[in-house]
Amino acid sequence: MNFRVRWLRAARDQLATVWLVHSDRNSITTAAHRIDLLLANDPQNEGEDRPTDGA
Tell me, what DSSP letter sits at residue 22? Predict the structure, then answer.
């Protein structure tokens, strides 16, 4: 089973800032893609536990 990875706006904005100032943009793109793949394929072991709303 695969899951969908959803980035928070703040995280996307930070990633964009890093991408814009970094000299090797391809490495930033590759790293972000790898994170997406790891989380989509095995979120229980690759992600962090977060409390649910109202917990």
Answer: -
